[in-house]
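Q: Is it fine to ask for two folds in a single conversation?
A: Yes, each is treated on its own. Send the first.
Q: Here.
A: Result:
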Amino acid sequence: MKSTLLFVLLLTVSIFSLNFSYDKKDTKLTIENLKAAITGETTASAKYAAYSEKAKEEGYVNIALLFKAASKSESVHAANHRAALEQLGESMGEVKPEFEVKTTKENLQDAINGESYEVATMYPGFIKTANDGNVNIALISFNYAYQTEKKHKDFYKEALDKLNNNQESSLASTYYVCSTCGNTYAGIAPQRCGISMTPSDRFYKIN
């Protein structure tokens, strides 16, 4: 948590020390990255909602709640990316998610794989490009998602481990999702979001 807060503080200082003007030509790649991120997050939101229903069918109530919370979080990311895109004077059409629902164990592994790619490759690359181009609105949106996806990856890894050891019932039965950045908390929420500083009365409660 301390490292996350330090990262956000340094990012904020960096952002406000920059010139907020940008050249249209410098935003081209970031605009494409925003569109890719919108597609990815919209698909993830729909997919995790479907995975939640599958987990519920298989009797894994707490895993179903985790997927439900993550679905809400990804929808926040998608909305943020769209807002950033529109502020840059661009738009994109409706996204039609495509995915396959398998067993809950397989769905968890798929989620781990997806989050791992986002935190190791996709968002670090998007953040670097936005930073290099001084596209600050996209930089903020990408960072919100990046910080949150790291937590989702850990949640999914824990859930898969608990499932494999017949301890699914020990997982959290309540989640909180920040309405600003999608940050996700299991069990108990702080007074303010550790990423965006949003007060907890603006969190979504998933139970």
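Q: Second one now.
A: Result:
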Amino acid sequence: MAADPADETQALPQPVPTFGSDSSRRPTLATEAKAFFPFGEEWSFYGGLNFASGKSPGLSLGDAGTVGVGREAQLYGADLYLKWKPVNVAQGYESLALQAEAILRHFASGDGLDGEWDGGGYAQVVAQFARRWFLGIRGDLVGVPSSSVLARTERVGLSLTFQGSEFSRLRAYFEAEHAATPSSAFLPQAQPQWAPAAYLQLEYSIGAHGAHPY
């Protein structure tokens, strides 16, 4: 069994790496495809698919050893970015953007464990309601489906951004995270189950930057 997260005298269990086992003979292979589609003058869509394959070094259980060593693993991912922005902004500065990504992971059977799937994803909507102000809401969901090495976790966040220019922005962000009870004996219950957090971010860019179509 893994260490209890409430026991501060022991190291917390780390997430199981998907790749990295026997890398000298089994390198990680990855591929990606991206495409951009302008739907008229107000709408644009940018999406992609990706895939990666390798071997997992397994989940460390501390003194109890490691399980799932050398299992073949694959990642299947998809992402999108959809934006609406009026052509004529003389009377206002409204815009709306949807961004989402989902990843599924497959572990083959091996080292005493059956084959299994897990995954997760996020989605966020950002609305521009004034020339320099943006309001966003985001949801993250990990462990759908859950597996022996990944428990379900939900997170919701709210952001308010002031964009001084194309090269600087100030953002306030608040989130709340909930960790569900794991269905696997390998994973301890996170303590506390609910965890709020707040951030204040300052971002500033210097130098030339490339143009983008959206």
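Q: Anything structural to flag on that second result?
A: Two points. The CA atoms of residues 77 and 139 lie 17 Å apart. The radius of gyration is 21 Å.
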